[in-house]
Amino acid sequence: MPRAVRERQMLDAAVTCFARHGYQTASMDEIAELAGVSKPLVYLYLHSKEDLFTACIRREAEALLATVAGAVGDPDVPPDERLWAGLLAFFTHAADHPDAWVVLSRQARTQGEPFATEAARMRDEIAAFVAGLIGEAAREAHDGAAITERDVTALAQALVGSAEALAGWANETPGVTAREAAATLMNFAWAGLGNLMKGERWSRR
């Protein structure tokens, strides 16, 4: 069997084990058994449990980023449609790969370095996509100058954080589809963005 195929099997097995048991509890013996290989072979290919976990985070982060980037990639599509496509792709990917999402959204962030940095890099890249879309929408709006660059960055961070929390809830709540979750966040975000682009900011009376 080609090395790339066997390594993919090991990573698939590792993602499943890390999602089920957490990084600290997951065992290399179980990962090897689930992958159908010997434990020495896992160490030969991926060196250590830390390196294996890092490889899982990187692979799953790259897959999620590629999915979102592919969905929002057409510059001729209006910004709101691109944002919708990106949100739908994000929630669909999280729903289709629940173990990977647990590894990225929970395990990677709670195990310290270097894992938290890997997860943060993924989040920053997604936030950059979203900031670009919000910025485009603001420039196309009649009063787009109402939103500053700082607003754009803050809104992108808020939207990504909301998407992460909502994806976790949707995956754990029976009957909630990726499309429903994406529509919920799109309606919440776009209604507020529309008011902000018109210069209608909330203020406490």
Question: What is the molecular shape?
Answer: elongated
Contiguous low-pLDDT stretches (5 residues minimum) are: none
Instruction: Say how many strands there are.
Output: 0
Give the helix tally: 9
Q: State the end-to-end CA separation.
A: 69 Å
- Decide which structural class fits the backbone: mainly alpha
Order of helices and strands: HHHHHHHHH
Q: What fraction of the residues are assigned to beta strands by DSSP?
A: under 5%
Helix content: over 70%
Rounded to the nearest angstrom, the radius of gyration is: 20 Å
Q: Biggest sheet: strands, sense, closure?
A: none
Could you walk me through the main structural features you see in this protein, from its secondary elements to its overall organization?
This protein is an all-alpha fold and 205 residues long. Helix content is 78%, strand content 0%. Helix 1 packs across helix 6, helix 5 (79-96) packs parallel to helix 8 and helix 6 (98-110) packs across helix 7 (115-140). The model has no long low-confidence stretch (mean pLDDT 84).
In a few lines, what is going on in this structure?
With 205 residues, the chain is mainly α.
Q: Helices and strands in order, then pairings?
A:
Blueprint: H1 3-21, H2 28-35, H3 39-46, H4 49-71, H5 79-96, H6 98-110, H7 115-140, H8 149-172, H9 178-197
Keywords:
single chain; 205 residues; mainly alpha; 9 helices
